Amino acid sequence: MFNILIIEDQKNMRESLVIAFKRAGYNTDSVESGEKAVELQKDHSYDLVVVDLKMETMDGLEVLSHIKHVNPSTEVVVMTAFGTIDSAIQAMRKGAYDYVTKPFQLSDILSVVERALEKKCLSEKVDNLQKETRENYKFGGIIGNSPVMMRLLNILVELTNSESTVLITGESGTGKELVAHAIHSNSRRSDKPFVVVNCGALPENLQESELFGHVMGSFTGAVKDKKGIFLEAQGGTLFLDEIGETSLSAQVKLLRFLQNGEIRKVGDNKPIYLDIRTIVATNKDLDEATKNGSFRKDLFYRLNVIRIHLPPLRERKEDIPLLINYFVNVYANKLRKKPPEISGDAMASLLNYPWPGNVRELENVIERAVTLMKGDMVAVADLALEIVSPADIMGVMKEMGGIRAALAQEERKTIIESLQRYAGNRKQVATNLGISTTTLWRKMKEYQIVSKTSYNTENV
């Protein structure tokens, strides 16, 4: 049963909310001031707090900041009769789940509270899954709890016993090498070499020699035998980044290796057989490259066994605060200073920025800010970004609606999978998901999910 605290200085409103919440099945406490709420929280833990924005001496935003400082996992819903842009920005910036504008129907605030508590349950399950995954596997550098990042972690877990070729796609700076290293670190080859080569950095006329080696005298300048990058990776994993930049002649040799494990040095007809796991990455559209003839179709088919796509940072903005916190701690520790806080305006700027350089650019911005900041808090002036206007911040808040839509889609998928697993038994499904059967019924109706005794995908 969930524990809820109501903070409201108007007695009639406070008592009405207490009665409504208790009837809904929640353990409910109430106080009339922020000061009493702070005292009460010293000895009590609450899953959710409902607080009035405008109160004497200590207002709702101050209470919100205190609650989030003491227990960041507590969800907060703000009530206000002053539904202005400024109050909405401040409440969301300080970590409120949502806000409701007075006057409201009790059913409306109960609906918001129910969604906030469901989000809390989902967040706790995600945190536990991430903790379990990171304890059992070496995924420490992959940061994020968005649906797309959770799917990525699940894929990486599935790949731990696989030797298949992996194609990683995504824009520059999204972390393709990090994912490749995670695949290697959790494979049977983890104690063998992990060799990285940027194909785009190799001159086209030297690619075959650099990758596969050469024998002395095979061409002008070949004054001695060269081992080649493939031989250096023997027994381990070879990560070929920017695979789309390889020459057609190098692609022929790479195809031969993928087909039978064979390479031949430039100028030598003697085959060499290697045991290597191959992972490739590209920020190019290889489908388009095969159409214009710059990339071989047969090689593309060989590489496209398991494809992992890393989305740009602008499409998973809910992960930005986690990444910021991670990089702030990393660079503060390097500089042997206390990790600074991020001001509200700075966080809004970081959330609103489009991040063309993705995670790599975000890391660089945070490193610069932590290194050069003047005070004890990172301000907008410490960031090499454009200042964000209130209208832009509201744009971010609207975009968060898209994030919630993505979470809803993921929730729908989870419910469908559970219904399939338990053959449509709603009681078992509700128990498995940690929600009531009433909530399950409401969500099935909301997501238009039809359940039958014998459940299959045709019911969706």
Largest pleated sheet = 5 strands, parallel
Uncertain runs are 387-391, 453-460
Characterize the overall form: elongated
Counting DSSP E segments of at least 2 residues, the number of strands comes to 14
CATH class categorisation of the largest domain: Alpha Beta
Share in helix: 40-55%
Quickly count the helices: 18
* Structural domain tally: 4
User: Which percent band covers the strand fraction?
Assistant: 5-15%
> What structural class results from the helix and strand content?
alpha/beta
Rg, Cα atoms, Å: 27 Å
Average of pLDDT: 83
**Could you please say which CATH topology of the largest domain applies here?**
Rossmann fold
The CATH superfamily title of the largest domain:
P-loop containing nucleotide triphosphate hydrolases
For the biggest β-sheet, the strand order reads: 2-1-3-4-5
Q: N- to C-terminal separation? A: 31 Å
Topology, element by element:
Layout (H helix, E strand, L loop, with lengths): L2 E5 L3 H13 L3 E5 L2 H8 L6 E5 L7 H11 L4 E6 L4 H9 L4 E4 L4 H31 L10 H12 L7 E5 L5 H10 L8 E5 L8 H6 L16 H4 L4 E5 L6 H13 L1 E2 L8 E2 L3 E6 L3 H7 L4 H7 L2 E5 L9 H15 L6 E2 L1 H9 L5 H15 L4 E2 L11 H32 L4 H8 L3 H10 L14
Parallel strand pairs: 1-2, 1-3, 3-4, 4-5, 6-11, 6-12, 7-8, 8-11, 13-14
Antiparallel strand pairs: 9-10
Helix pairs in contact: 2-3, 4-16, 10-12, 13-15, 14-16, 16-17, 17-18
